[in-house]
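Build the 3D complex.
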Amino acid sequence: MNTACCALGIAGTALRVNVPEPWLTPLGAAWASWAPAAETRPWSIVIAEDADLAEPEGPLFAVRPRCRGGMCALLAPGFAGDVNAGQGVGHLYAHPAATPADVGYFLRVALAVQAFARGGILFHAAGVVHRDKGYALFGVSGSGKTTAAHFSAPDPVLNDDLLLLWPSAGGWQIYATPFGKRRGDVRHAVLHGLLRLVQDSDVFLAPLSPGQALGELVSNTPVLAADALWLPDVLSRWETVLAGTPAYALHFRRDPSFWEVIDAELG
Amino acid sequence: MLSWDDVLAVESTVVTRESGHELVVVLPEQGKFVVLNATGARMLHLTDGKRTLREIANVMAGEFDAAPAQVESDVLRLAQSLLERGAMVATGQNP
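Done.
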């Protein structure tokens, strides 16, 4: 089986991925413009086919990573994967019936671990750049991230599902990722507000209490919210984000009117 | 249903963090969280795998200068809720 390398980098993250050809082509196309910075040391991620594994019973994204201290395992019929933050490596053995989406999910896990190990946070949120300010619209699956991104047109959408938060001298930045839908070519913006989406018939902002905000943010932190050893550090990192960024519940309906409310309160 | 003689303990993987006047209780196995006010936080701290729910309610009634009946009701309800959410485990009974 021929294998080839491709690379993914966002802010201070970098993954160098060795992947068999059937999965390489779609991933390479999706990541063509996401090369890591030359000075960023990459983690080595090796993907390999293993026909001896049982056939997959479902997609890999349905498998919950088991993590302790930055060492994560993904084990399910058709898949055997691990990510080791201490060594900066990841391996995925996958049945030939696995799809590029399965490989992409494994790389999201690796990126989540690496991002946190290097000072950032991967975050389940839609990122919208409105009047040059970055807003993270977050919530559990079905809360309306894609809907809110849709009704934010023509503002750029960094991603409608997954953002990378990264610290900078000017505050926390939200970065686009290649793992969901985007609009426009903007790649990052200074984080100006954290907005927990609540679908409602009325449109308004309600401040989140510090505890509620912290809990909501942690529960929308993929992979690491399940790592009991790293969880105290995850909480601490979100506390630093909250120290400089307001957090609200955004009650919204299916139209663009919520931006008027946001502009009035936060603009 | 819990009884007054039940002894509970905080589930071993639970991670907590004080935030303002609240206590954030994160359940990493489930990817969920609970936010407790000061009263709930005190109850969680007193839940040590040794005290019965009755003993916890008695301690809190003294600390919060509240009617014992009200505290007992609150303690039992919160303990049941946290048990069902997986934040606590039953460790036995002390008659």
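DSSP finds six helices and 15 strands in chain A.
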